[in-house]
DNA sequence: GCTTCGCGCTATAACGTTCTAGAACGATGG
DNA sequence: CCATCGTTCTAGAACGTTATAGCGCGAAGC
């Protein structure tokens, strides 16, 4: 209750607590860890002493002594909003599994190699990489050292675990939805070389094909950002499809903004579908119809896989876990206007597969 | 060059390197730290052995042994885009000062108290808190234990260092700019209880006062998010000021979106100024005139202050460092239309100071 | 030739924790 | 009364690193 004035100088250690409680150091350790081997009365006394001295265990020393550190390293991009959702999920999943997280950010001035290097020094037992841009060969080298789980990007290598959204299926959902509404001229704004972009492009093509609309395919170069979307919108205005699926929500926001500013009503003149269900899409004045990635499930599986590898249950199922997304229908999609439904989409530019 | 197959089992330690190089363990330590006390020939030999074994120093053990950990804890919000910029800056500043950073995120499921607690266990020497919501009393308790630097929020307590943008001055810049353009009916969309909101509100009032426009003050309740901005926009449409300063860029984006959708031209019918110069504002299709916070300078000062405290130069200047912002003029501000410049703004709602 | 250096290196002890043995003790069982 | 056991505790070592002290040796100074 009456916590001692925390001295600015030396940190209070197990030895301090032991001295005050009149017991040995290991016994204090036993009490602090809730390990068996101490009487109820002693526990009480030790806990009181610890409380009074404001004792905090030193995780460095603890991990040094233990064979296991129970520490999972996470590399994330500090700019990418969706990584925020993933980090949140990872914290709760790790918490439940009784693991700790060590965060290492990728910034404009700090590349993935540095981020990983610092985690290696911290003695993490496993690595979770969010949408890494590292070449597969380096990922494989890492995976030879320790369990590596890559999130949100496919990796063709036996040693690397992958948890990702079924990007192709996401575009099937989007296209199916638009076809159900009556659209036939459906364009796609591409993500270029971004993680997942190739899969989404493939899903778009497959879905059109499945509906017998393969010859209507129109792929406009885009990217990850609002600016990329704005640029793509100008091409869309020229080509005038009745609907468009966009690589992600940020890009879709750029598309929306330019379309509306240029007098193209959404969803009246053109329907728009995003990808991610980021907080952007949920904004009431945007109300973007979008493909939602299940961040909670993805992160839970990523942590579960790391834990399984570490606990030796390496016989676990599949190396690559592909999570189905789901469609969130909001206000940017509707049936095409009758007068637009007929005319064929003009082909502007098609990126090669 | 030919790095040994990294054994999945035990980690390679100084002892392994020492054995291979045929020297003692402390000597390897000396070489790895580039400390004086080893001949050039030995250095070469040891480095080669370390390389071959793929040795990585164990930062836990290192920090345990050293009196200093040279570790600075950072608490940041995983959702807030501006925190991303700040974290980037902190990394480079810490790097230059030869300190390491330990990141601890605040998420919907992990409050600031937990974030701080985990950093304390990691044995950080100082804490940098980005826009914390913790009560001043708790900040003061922390500051009694270790140097605490709060960024982007004023704190009235002797023990806590503060580095923040001069929010009031930022609104002076914004209002001056608008007045220069010829505006007299300038509204402000408020940030409520968000960090910095009170200062910006005050700056807005002072600036209007300074230009003899105090009786034109119009403060519309807002918030931090696009949705808050969208709601505020509806009030603005009713009140019809010719210009508006908005709490931050996200909120301003919401304002812009609704204004344009409702047929209010920006900047034709209404000028809009944001705050933060976030990536949002820089987007070419948004091109928001905004008050820029100097993230690089803020983070450099925050780290410098932490280092000064730790090195004992506590005689350092001011406890609170207030960084002047600057105005970035883009495309959302212009002179008011002649027919609008005359009529007085109607008062909709004024939040109490 | 003896001290006095300085240099390159090693031995030993820490840092704060947890693990492994084992000691002290009363209770139980024959 | 002695052996056995379980409980509660302590002594000592260990994790991987770095700080401190000191050793051996050739060079310089008297």
Automatic annotation (TrEMBL), chains A, B:
SUPFAM superfamilies: lambda repressor-like DNA-binding domains (SSF47413), Periplasmic binding protein-like I (SSF53822). Keywords: DNA-binding, Transcription, Transcription regulation. Pfam families: LacI, Peripla_BP_3. Residues 12-66 form the HTH lacI-type domain. InterPro entries: HTH_LacI, LacI/GalR-like_sensor, Lambda_DNA-bd_dom_sf, Peripla_BP_I. The keyword tRNA processing does not apply. GO terms for molecular function: DNA-binding transcription factor activity; transcription cis-regulatory region binding. The keyword Transcription regulation applies. This is LacI family transcriptional regulator.
């Amino acid at each position: 209750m009456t916590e001692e004035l925390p001295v600015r100088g030396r940190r209070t250690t197990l030895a301090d607590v032991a001295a005050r409680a009149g017991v040995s150091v290991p016994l204090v350790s036993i009490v602090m860890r809730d390990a068996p081997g101490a009487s109820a009365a002693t526990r009480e006394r030790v806990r009181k002493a610890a409380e009074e001295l404001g004792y905090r265990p030193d995780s460095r020393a603890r991990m040094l002594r233990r064979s296991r550190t129970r520490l999972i390293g996470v590399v994330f991009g500090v700019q990418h909003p969706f990584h925020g959702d993933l980090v949140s999920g990872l914290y709760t999943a790790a918490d439940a599994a009784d693991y700790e997280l060590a965060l290492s950010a990728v910034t404009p001035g700090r590349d993935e190699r540095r981020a990983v290097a610092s985690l290696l020094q911290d003695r993490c037992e496993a690595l979770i990489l969010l949408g890494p841009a590292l070449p597969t060969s380096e990922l494989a080298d890492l995976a030879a050292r320790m369990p590596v789980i890559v999130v949100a990007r496919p990796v063709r290598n036996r040693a690397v675990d992958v948890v990702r959204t079924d990007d192709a299926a996401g575009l099937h959902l989007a296209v199916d939805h638009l076809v159900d509404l009556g659209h036939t001229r459906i364009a796609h704004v591409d993500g270029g070389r971004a993680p997942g972009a190739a899969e989404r492009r493939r899903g778009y093509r497959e879905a059109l094909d499945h509906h017998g609309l393969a010859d209507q395919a129109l792929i406009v170069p885009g990217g990850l950002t609002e600016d990329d979307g704005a640029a793509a919108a100008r091409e869309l205005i020229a080509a005038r499809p009745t609907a468009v699926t966009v690589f992600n929500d940020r890009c879709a926001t750029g598309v929306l903004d330019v379309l509306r500013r240029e007098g193209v009503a959404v969803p009246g003149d053109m329907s728009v579908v995003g990808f991610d269900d980021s907080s952007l899409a949920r904004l009431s004045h945007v109300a973007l119809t979008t493909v939602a990635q299940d961040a909670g499930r993805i992160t839970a599986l990523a942590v579960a896989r790391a834990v399984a590898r570490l606990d030796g249950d390496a016989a676990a199922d599949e190396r690559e876990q592909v999570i189905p997304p789901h469609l969130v229908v909001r206000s940017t999609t509707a049936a095409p206007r009758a007068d637009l439904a007929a005319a064929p989409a003009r082909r502007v530019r098609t990126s090669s597969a």
